[in-house]
Specification:
The complex is a heterodimer. By secondary structure, chain A is α+β, with helices and mostly antiparallel strands. Chain A has a single domain, classed as Thiol Ester Dehydrase, Chain A, CATH 3.10.129. Chain A is built from three helices and five strands, in the order βαααββββ. Chain B has one domain (about 5-165): Roll (Thiol Ester Dehydrase, Chain A). In chain B, strands 1, 2, 3, 4, 5 and 6 form a six-stranded antiparallel beta sheet that branches. By secondary structure, chain B is of the alpha+beta class. Chain B has helices at about 5-10, 25-35, 45-55, 85-95; strands at about 15-20, 95-105, 120-125, 130, 135-145, 155-165. Classes of the chains: A alpha+beta, B alpha+beta. The interface of A and B includes residues 36, 63, 70 and 158 of A.
Chain lengths: ~160, ~170
């Protein structure tokens, strides 16, 4: 069933359903190569350990961004349009770990162009270790006739 | 420790303005969606894309993907680096290791298959020397702007990097 989240269905304090995913070396390497990131610490364990001083290869930021996008748009459906994302990398995610995305709505507001924005705090953690937090501003339809993707210029203020 | 004059002179200047090596294409869009199991019909179903976005678009978070250079290209003797300013800073400041600690992306016009994007890198700031659990070095902020072939802004990105010497 297609999800189509509307402004009236969200409020501050609302929690998003968590998403758990078991990370393997394939997850890390596929993600790095999909984002055209050839740097060795995302595919070469020996380099990661001996040069970077990390315990294994680890997920790269551009692919984590794609994971955050997927997590947020799974919630909004295809009409949800990302405006802004701010990532704070605190710790790395390694093969063999289960990463868990969780999110909460901090604020819902409508700007002077009539665009409804949800501000979310989204985290990805491994156990009780917070790895990356992401502040997300996403536009959702104000009503059934609204489509954030049609906004341009002065009507799009991310 | 004061900042070398050379680095000081980069702040606020457009240091690299370059076109992506190939137009935006759907193969990478699907590979990326597949890597994170993103089933958003905007990227898989042309009818949905036609209705909502006037045709296919790329996931907004793929913006930096389009300007990472090929690992090898014929005739190239020095490997080009994404975020060249970041690597210039590492080299000029003598900081062999670096990590990215903070990244903000702001999305404007959607990116579409066939788009040819242009990027510009601007160094915003470099901190005084600092010591973290990784080592001693400096933090810096780099802005990257992305424009399409119609000179429309498609995204802006701000990176905070930390270049360091291990255990120093």
């Amino acid at each position: 069933m297609a999800v189509n989240l509307m402004a009236g269905q969200i409020e501050a304090g609302q929690k998003l359903e968590p998403l758990a995913y078991d990370v393997t070396a394939t997850t890390v390497i596929l993600g790095a190569l999909a984002s055209r990131d050839w740097r060795p610490m995302h595919h070469d364990r020996d380099f990661a350990i001996n040069r970077n001083g990390t315990r294994d290869i680890f997920m790269n930021t551009p692919n984590l961004a794609a994971w955050f996008e997927r997590y947020v748009t799974d919630w909004t459906g295809p009409r949800g349009r990302l405006g802004r994302m701010n990532f704070r990398m605190k710790d790395s995610i390694y093969p063999g770990e289960q990463m868990v995305f969780s999110g909460v709505v901090d604020k819902v507001e409508t700007d002077d162009a009539g665009c409804t924005w949800a501000s979310l705090s989204v985290d990805v953690s491994v156990g009780d270790r917070l790895c990356t937090s992401c502040a997300v501003r996403v536009a959702v339809p104000s009503d059934a006739a609204d489509n954030p993707w049609q906004r341009k210029g002065d009507r799009w203020k991310p | 420790m004061s900042l070398p004059d050379e680095v000081q002179s980069w702040i606020g200047q457009v240091r690299y303005e370059e076109a992506t090596e190939f137009p935006v294409e759907r193969g990478y869009i699907h590979t990326t969606c597949s890597s994170v199991e993103n089933g958003n019909p905007l990227f898989w179903d042309d009818a949905v894309a036609a209705e909502l976005t006037g045709g296919p678009i790329a996931p907004p978070t793929m913006i930096s993907v389009w300007f990472r250079p090929h690992h090898w290209a014929p005739g190239r003797t020095v490997q080009a680096q994404p975020l060249q300013v970041h690597f210039d800073l590492k080299e000029t400041l003598g900081l062999p290791e670096a990590v990215m600690s903070d990244n903000e992306i702001i999305f404007y016009e959607p990116v579409r298959p066939g788009d040819r994007l242009v990027t510009r890198q601007i160094l915003h700031s470099v901190s005084e020397p600092k010591t973290t659990k990784l080592g001693t070095g400096r933090f810096w902020v780099i802005e990257v702007e992305y424009l399409n072939q119609d000179q429309e802004l498609v995204a802006k990105e701000m990176y905070t990097g930390f270049g360091y010497k291990r255990g120093a």
